[in-house]
Give the backbone structure.
Amino acid sequence: MEADFSATRTLHYGPLPRHWGKLALGVLSFLLAGLFAVTMVHRRAFLCDRPSPGRGTCRIVSETPWTATVEHSFNVSAVREVRWRDTTSPKGGKKGETVLVLASGHEIRVATGPQPASRAAFERIKYFFDNPGEATLGERVAPSAWFWLGVLLMLAAGLVLLSMFARAVTAFRIELDDSGGRLRIQASHHGVHGRRRQLDVRGLREIFVETSSFIPWHAKSSSTPIPTARLLLKFAGNRTVPLTPGFLENPAATVDLKNELGSALGLWHEPEVQTGESTRAADDEPMLQDPYTDVDAQLAAASQPERFSWKVHGRRMLLLGGVLLVGSLAFLLVSTYLTGETGRLTVRCEHRCRFGATECLPGGGWSSPMKPGAYTIEVWNPEVPGNWQKILVEVRDGETTQFICRPGR
């Protein structure tokens, strides 16, 4: 019982490796899951209100739980035709989109997505514009269920990695009772003490070290194995009990613990100094070999620092580079969705042009990410009143719009 346990000596076993890589990968998985989850709350909506025939407004809106930004709006009466267009995804999947043809001749694409959902959206949009009695229309495009599955998998991976890091034992505290017949063992997880367990060591005959080794999953099969060891207590009847669960990665500390614990339990003592006469007598007899000598030599050799290997460390650097690359790409993807700038406009100026506060001279140009929608670019044209001719340019979701800035005919 804990109440009658009086510790007279305390031994420390450790420190043991902390495996910071698991913590880093777990935190990274959680961050990626959070970033992707933020992008999933972003939706694109096509909303129309028609209070009476011949009136009403349609809006293309970028929605989040906190904001709703109108990217483009136009009158319902400006739509002359509703078309269906088949498209394909970069992976070859079937997609589709609804094309609204305005009276000005410009086209606006809405409800883009995989079939058959995009086809059903087209039917609803067409029905709204073909029936003036319909008052409202609302079509929203949200990320697919596969996106949710990816986020859940990243969360699960992060939980597993963080759990493995938190459960890793970094040290042991071993206390010896004043009676010498019991041990109290307590594991430490990164400084947090775990449960205490008691072990009855009455009848202990021997303490010995069992060795093993393993090769990390990210290393080559020909790499030098990492030595491990555990301490076994041997009782009467050849019954063995491990002092600690599993093999641990500090063989030198295991050997030190064996020596300290064996001395504390009185299993062996320092050899006595022999006289010359007793030494000569002992030379005539076969010397007893220390049963721990081979194990100590094996562990000492295995625990020597491993020679630097470009192959092993090169793979580790490649792994780290891959993780950083994936994280950077994920951040770019998330930032793109958060800002809503999922299209790009590239302008090449053949005449003097301006777009907002930006002005471009002949021979110049610019390219920038932009939100999908219709934008007005002004071109210098001496033949029009006011000398600035306005040209409507449509930026499409997920595409790069190429525009040559010159006066229209």
Remarks:
- Residues 343-405 form a domain with the Immunoglobulin-like fold (CATH 2.60.40.1120).
- Residues 270-292, 302-306 have pLDDT under 50 and may be disordered.
- Helices lie at 20-40, 117-130, 145-167, 251-264, 276-283, 293-302, 310-339.
